[in-house]
Each structure stands twice: as C-alpha cells, then as structure tokens.
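Quick question: what would this complex look like in 3D?
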Amino acid sequence: MSGARTGTGTVETGASGAGTNRTPLDTVTAPPSGRVTLRTRRTLLFTGLALGLVVAAVVAAGTGQLAIPPGEVWASILRGLGLSNAPETVPNADSALWNIRFPRVAMAVLIGAALAVAGTVMQAIFANPLAEPGVVGVSSGAALGAASAIVFGWTAAGDLVTAGAAFVAGLLTTLLVYFTSRAGGRTEVVTLLLTGIAINAFAGGALAFLTFLGDSGSREEIVFWQLGSLNGARWQEVAVMLPLIAVAITGALLLGRTLDLFSLGERGARHLGVRVEAVRITSIVLVAILVCSAVAFAGIIGFVGLIVPHLMRMAIGPAHRPLLIASALGGALLLLLADLAARTLVPMAELPIGMLTSLIGGPFFFWLLLRTRRRSGGWG
Amino acid sequence: MTRPPALEARSLCVEIDGARLLHDVDFAAHAGRVHALIGPNGAGKSTLLAALSGDLPAASGEVRLGDAPLAGRSPKALARERAVLTQDHRVSFPFPVREVVAMGRHPWARSPEAERDDAIVDDALAVTDVSHLAHRTVPSLSGGERARVALARVLAQRTPVLMLDEPTAALDLKHQEDVLRLARTHAQRGDTVLVVLHDLNLAAAYADDITLLRGGRVVATGSPAEVLTAERIEAVYGQAVEVLPHPSTGVPLVLPIR
C-alpha cells in the first residue's frame, strides 16, 4: 500500500500523545497519522478520476456509428494540435472526431464538472446534503426561459438567444428561491426545499402551457430542454461555456476553506470571522452561473449535483477544497459516461441524458433520505 | 475596579420581530474574572450573550468590547477578540474532530499566529479531554462529546474574551467541573469569561461575579453571596430555596426546599 511509503513514522502520535502534556512547538510539522492516509486517499482519488476521465474521453470519442480505435483517436488529437502528421487510418476519422465527437466530449466534461461543483457549493452554504440546483428549481426556471425563447421566436435574433434566455431565467429563479426562502436573515432548509417544490410546479405548468402554445417544431425543442441532451454540441457553444464555468469553479475553489466553516451553522461561521451574507450571495451567483451555463446548452440534467458530491464526500471526507476538485472530476466523468450510455444503449437511437441521470438519481436521492433518517432522525 | 470593563452593555435594548427581549440592560464583565449569567428560562440570558457577541443588533443602547463600540467592527476583527460557544454543537458534514477544532484557528489564518496552529489545536483537544476522539467524525459522537469538541474549537480561537452559552448542559459531573475549572484557568490568565449557567451551585462555586436576569431585565449583579439570597431566588424562580454557606469554603449552596 502506498500509505506505508508516505507515513513518516508518525503512527498513533497526535491523539494519544497530546492527552497528557502540551505538544511542544517543534512537533508542529509532524502530521497525525489520520491526515497522512487521508492525503493518500485524496491523491489516489484525484489520480484515479483524472485517468478515468482521459480514458473515458478517448473511448467516448471513438464510440459511435463510425468506430474509431483509441490509438487513432489519440493520433487525431495530436494531428489536430499540429503535433503529428501521421495519416488517418480510419477514413473521415478527423472530421467525425473534431466536428462532432470532441465538442460533445468537451461539453459533457464541462457540464458534468459545472453541475457537480454547483451541487457541492449549494450543499455547503445551506449546510445540507439535500440541497441541489435541480431540487430547488433553478434548472426548471432556466428551462422555462429557454422554452419562452423557442416558442416566442426570439431565436430569430441569433443562435445564442435560447441559451441567453435560459441563463437569465435561471439566474432570476436562483435569486427568487434565495430571497423567498429567507426569513429574519436565515435560510430555513425546509422552506428552501418547499420553495423548490413551488418553483418546480410553476415552471412545470408554464412549460406545459408553452408546449401547448408552440407549433410541433417548438414542442420538440421544448421536450429537448426538459429531458436534456448533449446532441449537436458545437465548439461555438463550448467556447461560450468554458470561460463561465472555469471562472465559477475557480471562484468556488477560492471559497473552499470558508465553505467548511458553514458546516458549523451560520452563527458559528460568523463567530469565526466569516462575512456570512457576502459569502452566501457570492456562492448563489456562482451556482447560478454554473447551472445556467449547463442548462442553457444541454437542458435539464438532474441529480449530478446530488450524486457526485455525496460519493466524493464518502471517499475523501467533507473538506471543501479537495471535495470541489474531486466533484469537478467526478461530475465530468459521470456525465461523460452517462452521455456515452445515452447514445449507445439503444442502437440507432439516442436516449435523453437527463432522463438517464434522473433514473439513477431519483432512487439515489431516496436512499440518501432513508440513510440520513436512520442515522440522525432526518431533518427537522 | 478602576480598569474599564472588557465587555460592557449600556442601556441595551434588543428586539426581535417587534418583541422587546432585553430592557435597558447595564452589564459589565472584567478581564481576569468569570462572570456568570443566570436566570429562569426565557430570562434573556442567551439573548444578552448574542447581543454581546454581535449576533443581534441593539435596538437602543450599545455594546462595548475592549472599551470601544462593538457595532461596525468586521466579523474577522471580532473573531480575534471574542470566541462564542453557542448551544448548537452540530456539525453538518462528517468532519473529523481535529479538523473541526482547527476551524477555530480560521480568524488567525495568514497571520504570524498561524504558525502555532497545530500546537494550539492539540492543546485545545487535550484540555477538553477529546484528544482520543481526534480522528472520529463529529456526527458520530455523543452529545456530551460534541459539546466538548465545540468547546475545544472555541478555545482554539485564543481570544481574550470567551462567551460560553450553557457549556455544561450536556455534560456529566466530572466534565461539568472540568469545563468550569477551565473557565477559571482562563480568567486567571487574564481572559474575560462570560458563562450562561443554569446550575446555581456551579455559578456560586466558580463565578467571581453573577448577573441575575428575569424577563429581559437585570434583577441583581454582584458577587455570588450578594446575588444568591434565598428571598431573591424564590422571587425570581418561583421556587422556595434555602441558601447555606458551604461548611469549609463558605461558598453559597442553593438547596430547593422539597
């Protein structure tokens, strides 16, 4: 095991040694054994997820109607980057990869990372593992914006109008949820979840109304928003999404240590010097940017923000900086695999990816509820 | 006492949702002393503590910390001046005990003080008797253990003012005494310790000063012997008591008449 290599003879120090007398200052650098194994676990997880991500990306790019072996995918990447001029061994490989598959892989990675990080941040600031952008209604608000753009023909103004409408509506919904679920300077988790129900109900009704209003073309597009899909991903969309998501994830990582303190509750965090309101509103905006970027281009893909942070927390504990990195990697991997499944499970057809994540996420959510109830009597 | 109080409330009124919870409270806690806040349920002890810690704004009057007004100071500046143990010891995610106690060092991040973080955390774990739990996660602990971990985190903050809201509530006999001995030790080192207590005998034994509250007003303040008289306790709590001096120490003993 690699734990043996990294352990520097500090087995069983920390705890028992400090019990009777004060630890002298010169032992400060010797970490307690628990932290070494945790660090090893984190390194293993990060490496594993990163490797898995690379492998999954190459495999996903090579899979489809035109099968391209991993070696050729790799060669095509090098060719595209101008690092190689070996000839194509599979006819049309470069065209299929660079025009269709790579943008789709890139989009899956970005959206997966964005949704998982959004979930992690949301759970941190509400100090509750059940807070998830989809659950509180942010995603459906964004989808409503997109559907309005489709039905009312705003898309005539340009390609990105649908995405823009989704973005704005998602942001407004997030702020609405935030302010309506607050009372006396506090956010009650129960109120938050109930607000989510109300928003989801309203957005569902409005979406149904728009579906009723629209012509058959619009209807198809609206269904796309509700079910989520990465079909037809383009570099242009990736280019819009990348800076937004990169900035928001960086922002979340900068908040990492502060987010840890929120697990002591709002008062506890404030007593330790955290500007609770400022951090909260920043986090909310970050969540909105992440979720809306994702929903704007791929529709509603639920539960990624619930499943991934939870699994990562089980693996490496709740400290937020490593957790955010792991969630970003894990979310990217999960969505990449889900998209691969969505387009290969049924031959010659493409399943909506949002449908897949919900089919997995719903039962997972339920299991999470049961488990929490068993352990601590649930949330009052 | 000639030095200005370390922590002071002047004609402090506090309102929540229009209900006045504190009426013209004058209060002063001094460095080097343990000051106990006592009173029946709903007397306003926790409200006063919250106002003194800066959690609740003053409707009128003011709170002063270190002889300057508390209002308007940044959360970080406050966090280096005073540490607060609330009654809520929950930690939402399964953080290990040591990491939770290390959170107490947050106000000192990126300051020269941060060099001593590990030693201070170890010391806080030791004095609250939770070193053996360092690698357990907080949600897996018992209520009393969680309370001691929360206290360790508050002590790790190393502030000159300590505010403890019912630190003994979940604890067994020995740990109750331990916590108050710890409060005394800190006071002897020059800290200001404010502690909300329900047990009048603990207050009598460990506090230098006691303030008795009822209905959001100060009923009495002074030494334990001055404040804890049988007539006053009966009037405030509605329970007849006998107050006897301890045969060897002379500390007042409050015994309910049963």
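Answer marked as accepted. Chain A touches chain B at residues 14-16, 18-25, 27-28, 32, 34-35, 127-129, 184, 257, 260-265, 267-268, 270-276, 313, 317-319, 375-376 (CB under 8 Å).
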